[in-house]
Design goal:
Blueprint (H helix, E strand, L loop, with lengths): L51 E5 L9 H11 L2 E4 L1 H5 L20 E5 L5 H7 L4 E6 L6 H4 L2 E4 L2 H15 L1
Parallel strand pairs: 1-2, 1-3, 3-4, 4-5
C-alpha cells in the first residue's frame, strides 16, 4: 500500500477495529540485528510522506529557477518535487522525481509549476487530493487533471503566491 492513499480515520467506540498491544520481539529470535538508525541528510519530508508538494517542470527554464519553488515550499511547509524532464536535464536529483519512473505521491495539495502533464508524470501524482496547475499554455494536459488551474507566467505567479502565503501564514 502506498503512503497517503487512504484517509486517516478516527479510532473510537464506533471503530470496527480492535486495538491490541503486542510486545516487541527480543533480538534473540531475530535473524537481523539493528545496530543504528541513520537519519537522512534532508530536513524536508520525503515526497511519499509529504502533505504538500510543489513540483517543477521544464517551464522553469533552468536549474537556478528551482529557487522559486524552494521559497514557496519553505513558506507553506511543502516538499519540492520535479518532473522527469528536469531530472534528466540534471537540474535536480532523481530522489525528487514524481512520476512513473520516479515516486508515486498522494499529498493533500500538489502544486504543479511549469509541468505540461505528460501521462508518465500524471501517473505519479494522480492520488493527490487537490491539484493546482500553473502553466502559460492553456492547453497543457495538466489542466485536465487539475482541481484549479492558473494560466500565466510562472515567474510572476509563483512569487505572488509566495507573498500571499507569507502574509497569511
Amino acid at each position: 500500500m502506498r503512503a497517503n492513499q487512504l484517509p486517516v480515520g478516527e479510532v473510537g467506540a464506533a471503530s470496527p477495529v480492535a486495538l491490541k498491544e503486542l510486545p516487541a520481539p527480543t533480538t534473540s529470535g531475530l535473524g537481523t540485528l539493528i545496530k543504528a538508525v541513520v537519519k537522512g541528510a534532508s530536513e524536508k519530508l520525503d515526497l511519499t510522506e509529504a502533505n504538500i508538494i510543489v513540483a517543477g517542470g521544464r517551464g522553469l527554464k533552468e536549474a537556478a529557477n528551482f529557487k522559486l519553488l524552494n521559497d514557496l515550499a519553505d513558506v507553506c511547509g511543502a516538499t519540492v518535487g520535479a518532473s522527469r524532464a528536469v531530472v534528466d536535464a540534471g537540474w535536480v536529483p532523481h530522489t525528487i522525481q514524481v512520476g512513473q519512473t520516479g515516486k508515486t505521491v498522494a499529498p493533500s495539495l500538489y502544486i504543479a509549476v511549469g509541468i505540461s502533464g505528460a501521462i508518465q508524470h500524471l501517473a505519479g501524482m494522480s492520488g493527490s487530493k487537490v491539484i493546482v496547475a500553473i502553466n502559460k499554455d492553456a492547453n497543457a494536459p495538466i489542466f485536465q487533471k487539475a482541481t484549479y488551474g492558473i494560466v500565466g507566467d510562472l515567474f510572476e505567479v509563483v512569487p505572488a503566491i509566495t507573498q500571499e502565503f507569507k502574509a497569511i501564514l
